[in-house]
Each structure stands twice: as structure tokens, then as C-alpha cells.
Queue: 2 jobs
Job 1
Amino acid sequence: MAQGVKRWYLSGLQTDERRMSILTIRSAKPADLAAIEEIEKRCFSAMRRSSHRALKHSLKSPTQSVWVASGRIDGKPQVAGAMVLHHHRLSIRIYSLAVLPTFRGSGVGRRLVNRAIKLAHKTDRTSITLEADRRNKVLTGWYETFGFQTYRVLKDYYSPGRHAVRMMRLIVKPALKGGRVCGRS
Ligand SMILES: CC(C)(COP(=O)(O)OP(=O)(O)OC[C@H]1O[C@@H](n2cnc3c(N)ncnc32)[C@H](O)[C@@H]1OP(=O)(O)O)[C@@H](O)C(=O)NCCC(=O)NCCS
């Protein structure tokens, strides 16, 4: 256990910052299913949340991955946020992202999105896409801070009259230093 975390338990100090710092982003396990389902229930309306069956499938699917922000909070294991990714040949789609209300505003969501971006770099994808409620300007503005841009409006996506925007962030490979890497000079 890291020194700071040990101190936190011993002193009983539980500032939000410390609570968040002991959360780690990791790949979800089948044992996380109930916690992820609870997060979906608490963060999305019945119409928009993933079913038990869909989440179970996401955990097993070779073309999807599920990530959680988890750690021991107040001595108990806790899953604070979850993210479902769909892996396509050239892109990654953030299919679902949610953080429990009590853990919001402390960077958990940002860490999950950054994990998706890192994964896209690592697996040579060219972009990341997502859909967001067009009316939720706070949310779309937040995604813009990562470099996402709206490129399409999806009419009636959630329900009649409830439109979504599809946003995309390009994954740009850093230029190779030193010019040519192959061939004769
Ligand atoms: C969007 C969400 C995952 C962000 O998680 P988070 O851990 O609070 O994110 P961070 O702490 O990294 O960033 C906080 C920022 O999120 C932004 N934000 C985005 N959507 C928000 C929302 N619905 N309510 C409040 N803040 C929101 C705010 O700009 C906030 O900035 P602030 O802290 O300066 O006020 C979380 O608000 C959530 O679960 N919302 C409900 C589910 C949802 O809408 N998911 C996205 C589906 S596309």
C-alpha cells in the first residue's frame, strides 16, 4: 500500500482529493457486474441504461471492453464509475460513461475518458467517437475539453424530439523524430 494511502487510513482524513487519489482505473471483472449495473441505474433513465444482459455481454465480448474506477473507500471496496467501450477496426466508441453522483466533480470521469484516449493511441485507432445529449451543453462542453468535436446531429436519437450529437476526437500519432525511418537515404 502506498504511503499516502496508509496515512489516510491511519489519520482518518478523508478529503475528496484523497478519496479520489486511491481510486484506480482498471479493466472490469465479471464480479463488478452488480456494481456497474447499479451505476447505470443511478446515472441513466430507464430508457437509456444498459440492461443486465447487455452489460454481461459487454464484459465478455472480444469487441468491447469495460473499465471501472474502483478502490477502497472508508475501508470498503467501491466502484465509483464505469465506462463501456466498443472497439471498431479504426475507432473506439465510448458507448457508456457514468460516475456515481457522490464521486462527481473530482476528476473520475476525466480519468476514464483519458484511459479511452490512451487505449486508442496504444491500439492504433484513428479516432474516438461518442454520442451525447444535444441539449446538455455542460456535457458536450466537457467533452470538447478533451478535443472532441461535434460532427453530426442524430435526430430523435433518445426519443422523439430528443436529439443527440455524435462527437469525435482524432487520434494523432506524434511525428517520428529524425525524419526517415526506413529506406535508403
Ligand atoms: C459526465 C460524467 C461522467 C462526468 O464525471 P465526473 O467524474 O464528474 O467528471 P470530472 O470530475 O472529471 O469532471 C467534472 C466536469 O464534468 C462536467 N460535466 C459533464 N456532464 C455533467 C453533468 N451532467 N453534471 C455535472 N457536471 C458535468 C462539468 O463540466 C464538470 O466540471 P466542474 O467540475 O468544473 O463543474 C458524470 O457527470 C456523469 O456520470 N453524468 C451522468 C451520466 C452521463 O451523462 N454520462 C455521459 C453520457 S455521454
Job 2
Amino acid sequence: MTRCHFLRLKTLNLRPQIGNMENLIPDLDVLDAAGVEQCEVKVSPDVNSGQSRKLYIESYGCQMNFSDSEIVASILAKEGYDTTSEAEQADLIFLNTCSIREKAEQTVRHRLKHINGFKKRKPGLLVGVLGCMAERLKTNLLEEEKIVDLVAGPDAYRDLPKLINQVDDGQKAVNTFLSREETYADISPVRLNSNGVTAFVSIMRGCDNMCSFCVVPFTRGRERSRDPHSIVAEAKALFEQGFREVTLLGQNVDSYKWSEVENNKARIEKLGVEKIINFANLLEMVAHVSPDLRIRFSTSHPKDITDEVLHTMAKYENICKYIHLPVQSGNSRVLELMNRGYTREWYLERVNRIKEILGDECGISSDMITGFCSETEEEHQDTLTLMDKVQYDFAYMFYYSERPGTLAAKKLKDDISLDVKKRRLQEIIDKQRILSHNRNKLDVGKVFKVLIEGPSKKSDHYLQGRTSTNKVAVFEALGKNKGEYVNVLITECTGGTLLGKIVA
Ligand code: SF4
């Protein structure tokens, strides 16, 4: 992932690391394993298929949001919109927003002020706010940001054509209804910012977990799983288009559950049997699409990940040996305050099972929050010692930022000073930097199957791709192209990258 320090990025044709809270990549006061503050914004690409109107979408935050923007682009393509990468060229500007941290929302508000300049020059320009910030603030957003014409929450995107018409008729338009059923299963996303090799496939929406620090259950609603047949059909279509990797996305993939009875009464009447499909079953179904289609997934929840999932991963070579398993804290009392549903011991037992079933090479990454309400120095030390025990390959690290409406905001005191939060954050970053480098050093001298994703960032003579364990490998091109699998002997490494050469 491109790193930046308080910079906004256009990440065209880059495949981001899958970060999370969970699956959430907040934009500013987050530091990566290298200790650099990171942020990510994706901008719609230029597509000129001769449609009469131009849509510009800027997407903030997490992979789910980027995936939703692809659904929005698909819905609006049918309404006569091509996408553009230039906001100035657009007839319609959407900001698909993130609410995970205060700064993510501030970024959007600053952006709206900038867009106001375009609107003054082009009065017919329609400006909409989508996603979590829209859901959290609802009609307040229209009052607070006069430039905004339209507000639509994550479950209201089918309604966008109607909302746009409403604005065209001179009214403001809002739909922040949260659905218990909507999964957009039948909508074929328009791939925005795609490298043509890797794609994201949403398998569920919402979250029922109510972690005390998290705003997601309030902005994305109740958990619901998507029809597995539509997921497999999307994976097949992607493979036929030349894609070679899909990442199955959900806030908590381990609680994926699709029941013929609950989810599709018509089909059960036809089949006459009830079949419940869990996440392990779904993984297996997608693994069968083709042995040349790699499968990743995010995000796993430590309280829900089962041995059945781990055994399914072990059984299929094309299911990548990498698990993003956010711990958040290494201390059981803090985990209880966070309402995470597991203890330090439970988490470490799950990690041991991963290592037993998938081997020590399986990549494991995490999210961690420092300075959560009432966290003591000893409890912070527990996070550091847990990191040593797990030996993470990568981590997204944050200091705690209270969000309005969450359980923690209502019941707990945000009583750790910013200085202490930041100092603790720096300590876990320093630890992770060492761990990441050590884990990469273990790969030197070994050969890995790498899926080529495109040229390396520094030179067209070099290519880059990923190992099954989700590490970036860079190597001389030798006539190979993106979308091909190659065997790469790792000869050296940095903390973030493996360097090597193609071997037979
Ligand atoms: S409530 Fe917990 S499990 Fe659900 S998205 Fe938030 S952090 Fe993840």
C-alpha cells in the first residue's frame, strides 16, 4: 500500500493491504508497521462509453466502502453515467464516506468545502454523501453542509436513481433506511480502480457484534449474508474475465451463514431440504471455481473462526494461507471492556490452532488499539507480550478515538491522555517493525508461488505480486506478465517487501 503522511492519495491500480477495524482503514491517525501515518482515498477512473453524464466517486475508508462504490457505479451506469477521475468534469459527485474516526469525517467536510468551489462554477452539479457518515448523521448532514443535495446510507443505493430525480426536481433527498435483507446480490459491480487480476467480492453486510469502540453496527446495520450461488457466479465471471484472485469481504466472515429456509423460501420449496451454508462451506464452493483462482478473505473474528475453516484452508492450495485476525488488545480485562467476546488465552489458543493446522508459515496480521478506556501500563505490556507470542507478519495500529453513539462513548471514560496513547502506539509500532522484518527474513532462501499483479512501483523492468501468505514480492520481469503465476526464490528482504528472482 502506498504510505503517506497526512496526504490524500489517488490509488489507481493499486491493491491496498486489507486493513481493518474490522475491514476498516481509517484515514489519518493510524500508523502502519513502518510507523507512518496512512490514509487512503480512491477515485473513480475515467470510463468513456459514450454515456451522456459523468459520475465522480471518491471513496474513503475500508474495502467494504470501495466495494460499495462499485455497486453504486453499476447502478448509475444503467442510468446513463460514465465515471470520471476529474471532479471538475462531473455532473454528479459522490463522496462515499467513513465514520470510524473523527478525522475521517473531518477530511470529508474539508473536501466538501473544496467541492463547493466547483458547484459555484457549475450550479447544476449534484453533490451526494454516501456511506457511514451519511448513515450516522442522516438529515443533520443536509443542515450542516449546505452544499450537499443527497444523503444515502449503505443500504439505500438501489434508491439512488429516485433520489437523483428528486434533487433534479429541486428538493433535497435522503434515504438512510437500514435493511435486514439488502445484500445487492444481483448487482454486478463495475470494477473501479482494478488491476485486472485481483477483485473484492462482498459476501455479507453489517455486523451484530457491538464491539464497544465501533460505530459499524450503527452505520451498516444488522448482519446478513449474501446468497452463496450469487457469490460463486460472481467469482466465476471474474475468472472468465481474467481475474486470478478474489477476496471475500465481510465485517465478520466467520459468522457467514446462509440458510435455504431463512434466506430463500422459494428454493427450499423446490429442493425440499434445508441446507445451511457456513463460511467453510462457502470457501470450498469458491475454491472449486478453478484451481487457478486464488481466494482470500477478510475479516476473521477470533471468537468465531473455526477449525473447520482452518481445515478447509489446508485442503485447498488455492485458498491463501493468510488470516487477518484482529486482536485489538492483549489483555483480557480490556478485551472485556471492548466487548470482543474472547480472552487473551482464547486468542492465543486460536493462533496455536492456525499454526498447527496451517503451519508456522501461515501469514497472520492484526489490528490493535492502544489507550482504550482505563488501560493501565501493565495491560499495555500485555499487548506487547502477545505480539511476541503471535509473531505477526503485519498489523494496523491505532490509538483509541471515541466515536459518538458507541457503547464505549456511552458507558466508559476516555481517560488516557493523548500523549500516553501516542507513546503506547509508538511502542507497538516499534515492536511490529521488528516482528515484520524477522518474519520476512524467515522467507529468504525459500521459493514461493507468486501471482503477478503488475509492474513494481519503482521500475517497469521489475514485477510485483503476492505470495499466498500475502507478502509482496518484487522480481525481474523476464517476459512475464500480470495475471501469471511464477515461482520466486526469495534472496533478500526489507521489513515490508520480499525481493527475489523467478525460478523454474
Ligand atoms: S463491531 Fe466489532 S466485529 Fe463488528 S465491525 Fe466493529 S470491530 Fe468489527
